[in-house]
Backbone:
């Protein structure tokens, strides 16, 4: 099968970003886990950590056989019947069988890679993430063999009685306001409320007789002595 043509422009940029996420350390963990589960080497190339990488990882899993063997051990007694043919469509069929087995086993569909991600080397990092998801699910399902990654969290379902649910409806949240702070207690209906909550009869009598400057003043210049209709000079002098 001919390899996928090299992408250009935006396609190449997206592929570059996906490749940048690839971590050889995570690949090594996945390799060691698969080998310990199926009890055979992942590929014939045995080398140092520097020899790891997407191309070698793809070559080891491309035919889907190792993945199906992995599923058969973890999901026992369920068995995935894979094909050892080297025909491209048979190899892609093996990969697809593995993905279906993972979904049936309980791995979230959003955690699964697509067949082309592996077979055409489109996103090998997603392949690693899928195997990690399978490792977490295996621990949750009680698989007693080698582990990969942390154990998947279990659901914490809580059941409330009808009485408890109804009791919650009588609680007024603080977002709706509160009656624990300042109120209009003691005020007459229609009376003015002061900023400091001081009632009118408690205010100083002398203070009530003072006219604020905002209201004007009768202590400055006035029209005393002016005749009605007569012009007023700038200095207030009669002409």
Residues:
């Amino acid at each position: 099968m001919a390899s996928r043509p090299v992408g250009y422009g935006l396609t190449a940029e997206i592929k570059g970003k996906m490749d940048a996420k690839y971590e050889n350390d995570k690949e090594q963990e996945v390799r060691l886990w698969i080998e310990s589960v199926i009890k055979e080497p992942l590929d014939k190339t045995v080398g140092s950590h520097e020899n790891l990488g997407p191309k070698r990882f793809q070559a080891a899993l491309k035919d889907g056989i190792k993945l199906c063997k992995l599923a058969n051990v973890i999901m026992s007694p369920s068995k995935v019947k894979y094909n050892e043919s080297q025909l491209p469509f048979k190899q892609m069929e093996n990969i697809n069988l593995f993905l279906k087995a993972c979904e049936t086993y309980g791995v979230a569909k959003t955690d699964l890679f697509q067949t082309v991600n592996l077979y055409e080397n489109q996103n090998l990092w997603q392949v690693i993430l899928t195997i990690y998801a399978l490792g977490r699910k295996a621990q949750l399902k009680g698989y007693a063999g080698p582990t990969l990654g942390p154990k998947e969290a279990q659901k914490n379902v809580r059941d409330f009685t009808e009485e408890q649910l109804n009791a919650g409806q009588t609680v007024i949240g603080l977002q709706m306001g509160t009656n624990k702070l300042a109120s209009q207690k003691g005020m007459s209906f229609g009376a003015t409320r002061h900023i400091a909550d001081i009632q009118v009869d408690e205010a100083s009598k002398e203070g009530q007789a003072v006219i604020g400057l905002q209201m004007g003043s009768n202590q400055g210049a006035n029209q005393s002595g002016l005749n009605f209709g007569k012009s007023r000079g700038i200095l207030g002098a009669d002409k």
